[in-house]
Amino acid sequence: MTLNKDKSTIGKEIRLHRILKHGCRLPLECVNYPKCRHSRKCTKECPDYKSFICKRRDRTPGACNGCDHYSSCRFDKYFYDATDAEIAYRQELIRLREGFNTSLEEIKRIGEIIVRPIKNGQSIEQVYLSHQDEIGVCIKTIYNYIAAGLFKEAGFDLIDLDLRRKVSRKVTRKRTNRFKEREDRSFFIGRSYNDFKEYIEIDKDAFIVEMDTVYNDISGPFIQTFKFLRYGFIYALYHTRKDKESMKKLSAILGDSFDIIDIFLTDRGSEFYGISDLEKELGFKVFYCDPMRSDQKGSLENKHEELRYILEKDRDLYEIGLVSQKALDLVLSHINSSPRKKLNKHSPIELMRFLDPELYARFKASGIKEITKDDIILRPYLLHDFQKK
Q1: Shared-domain flag, residues 43 and 116
Q2: Which domain holds residue 309?
Q3: Of 169 and 374, which is predicted with more confidence?
Q4: For residues 230 and 343, what is the distance between their CA atoms, to the nearest angstrom?
């Protein structure tokens, strides 16, 4: 049977609807448990602790269906049932389409404005013309609120029969999920791409770092990339999870010395929503590109093309050998050592070493080293020594 879908799409579906069946009776899923030298007192701080990783369970396809080692495997298992997944998907569709994007407090605020004039015989249109800026929603939305009985729930004696023309609208029978506010994205205010352009017009010498995430599969690994525009230098952090808490761990870049960076410019991926929390703490500004406008940080996007010479798309990055920060540092060393025409045949690492020896020393200490130009490798076999034998 041909599904005509990319394997990453199928992997996402399985991971969303797979069912965990606990099978591990060990304190932790540690591969060294049978040969434990510490009386099997399992903690994640143990020097021999190594998390169990299954190519079938933790990567694509992401489920244990049909695994030959099912009966002998002592670890937790995931199963995917297409019928159960379809039912869960339909229920999720219904849930997402229920309710209103508002709150009880918002309904009360609007009710204070419109109820009295409507009770006095004015139409919704007349009230709206007088208080459009205060109301904040369109006329059709007000009709929907009245038809659904939201103002009555908020304590106002206002139903559709109070209107000069009773509108015929189907009222939902369900009373749950009446109010469902969307995620608060107020932190984008003052951090848009237009705000970024205004900021750099004032501070033309600002030190700018563009940031993004690169990955091939939802099971990881996830590469948080940074381009230091002043030098054309790319750095990256290795993550096994793609969430806000992981992406906020920026201290691995420059230690405690963040004074050199003035601006982070990134996209609106949800994993970067927490970065703005660090502004006051670490003293830099965060700006977000407009939706669907990756070209606004095109310099970093172009750098990703070089990254893909080694970390090819449609490949399992674990199998290629990208298994740790050390392996990623080797990739970055070869990319940053490559000469650039616009740098007068010099490499980004040479430019940084000349213009900012202190910053160069920090990256060198973290594992980024200069590669002789004739020894530069931009092919996947660069990570051959990191592949699991």
Answers
A1: no
A2: 188-386
A3: 374
A4: 11
User: In this predicted structure, what is the pLDDT of residue 52?
Assistant: 76
Whole-angstrom distance, CA of residue 261 vs CA of residue 43: 37
Average pLDDT over residues 313-321: 88
Cβ–Cβ under 8 Å, residues 353 and 360: yes
Q: Across the chain, what does the average pLDDT equal?
A: 81
Residue where one domain finishes, among candidates 59, 76, 97: 97
Alpha-carbon distances of 298 from 60, 190, 238, 311, 341, rounded to whole Å:
30, 21, 22, 19, 18
Number of domains observed in the structure of the chain: 3
Three-class SS state of 277: helix
d(CA 167, CA 185): 34
Which of helix, strand or coil describes residue 132?
Answer: helix
Residue 176 included in any domain: no
Q: Which of 47, 79, 97 is the endpoint of a domain?
A: 97
The closest of 53, 58, 43, 61 to 7, measured between CA atoms, is 61
Q: Output the domain CATH number for residue 357.
A: 3.30.420.10
Question: 117: exposed, middle or buried (C-beta count within 10 Å: 0-12, 13-18, 19+)?
Answer: middle
Asked whether 263 and 285 are in contact (CB, 8 A), the reply is: yes
